[in-house]
Amino acid sequence: MAPPAGTTGTQLSRGRWAFAFALVTSLFFTWGFAYGLLDVLNSHFQTVFGISKLQSTMLQLAYFGAYLVYAPIAGVFMRRYGYKKGIHMGLGLYSLGAIFFWPSAKFEKYGGFVGCTFVIGCGLASLEVAANSYIAVLGSPKYAAARLNFSQGFQGVASFAGPLIAGRWFFTGKNATSLDTVQWVYLAVAGLGVVLNILFYFCDLPEITEAALEEEIHVAGITKEQEPFLKQYRCIFGWVAQTCYVGAQVGVASFTVNFLVDQGIGISQSRASTLFSLCQITFTVGRFVGVAILNFIDPALLLSLYGMCCIAFSIAVSQANAWGGVACLFCLFFFESICYPCIFTIGTKNLGVHTKRGSGLIVMGVGGGAWYPPAQGGLADSVNTKTSYLVPMTGYVIMTIYAFGIVLDQAVKGGFRVRNIDELAVERIAIAEAFPPTALPDSIARGNYPKSAPSSESDKKVDEEYVEDAKV
């Protein structure tokens, strides 16, 4: 049975909203830490196992390939059982994969690490479908991109904590050629997953259902979600854009340590890991800066501008030498910051009954991280690491085309938009001006309900209240 009709984020009290927001935001730290460690392990395993750059990307293939396989399953699961059970499933798989890093490190089996990384990826795919979708619908669509950027900013905090730990323990002394500390780090990661699972079990997390979301957008006269899912083109093309963007982002991060070491300016692996952590800090700062900007600037327009900057700086990284290349790399990390949350919120906006399925599809786009790094690794092995940064540039191009397409679509339908607006409020005001209150129940508020159904006095009162709210 599907979960009962619940509420929307705008109907929660301030206290319940803040509690739900903080609780789900804690999940972003969880997978940010795992992701930060992954990029450093990619370089560390090249030393320990004596494998090539291309072979080391098997970790990325397993991690992000899990998203490609499991994100749609997670979306269907949560549509049937709700967000909270989806979070339990994700944290369970996350802890299970992390605990098996211990025997993989003990017996020094690279294949074991790849398998465990796949299980962790399945768990994180579930968490991303739940958390990204939940934060996006936890309030007005106008600020969805800003909310998700803020929450994902804590993912960035954890992402640079991972490389800092690696720089201190993985690449110093005897640990530079052993896996001893990897065992303890992932044992702690597994413990964190178990603790979070217990906390979520005892916490009252409000269920925001698709039925409630559908009713909210129908009141504003938006009925596009009544069309089949395959005709939700903003979401479908959003998946394509997300696939290409995440592939580009993962490629950039996966070879950052190699790029810094190969610049020929005396950067050791340990120092490169520290610089990579600073790159992640730059990325995180960009996220929080983006929160402020997205309160005023339209997300699609801002994504277009940031996409062009990503294209320019990825080309610059592939051509610049010494510290100039390093500076361009830092700029690239900054302009990547808002891209994932903006694509997600743009692609899943006003999907109504398709919200969770659409969220699963957009998160499946994270699977792009499975095939971009091998392509970049092959070019890095055959030419050099610097030139390989032309591979992620292609992903930014496709993402930017998607963003420009959304900007043009908005311009055709309602004029060129610079400021961020509340579309639902605008539609309600238009309805208030076009229809008298007594006409609302049949023409708008009931959506696809039978037009001949009589309206009760209570229905009319509710409809009049909607009109008054819209005018305000």
TrEMBL record:
> What's an example of a GO molecular-function annotation for this chain?
transmembrane transporter activity
The protein's matches in SUPFAM superfamilies, at most eight in alphabetical order, are given as: MFS general substrate transporter
- On the tree of life, the source organism's domain of life is Eukaryota
Sorted alphabetically, the keyword list is:
Cell membrane, Membrane, Transmembrane, Transmembrane helix
Enumerate the residue ranges of region (Disordered). 439-472
What residues form the membrane-spanning segments?
Answer: 17-38, 58-77, 89-105, 111-138, 150-171, 183-203, 236-261, 273-293, 300-317, 323-346, 358-375, 387-408
Gene3D superfamilies hit by this protein = MFS general substrate transporter like domains
Listed under GO cellular component are: plasma membrane
Q: What's the name of the protein?
A: MFS general substrate transporter
Species of provenance: Heliocybe sulcata
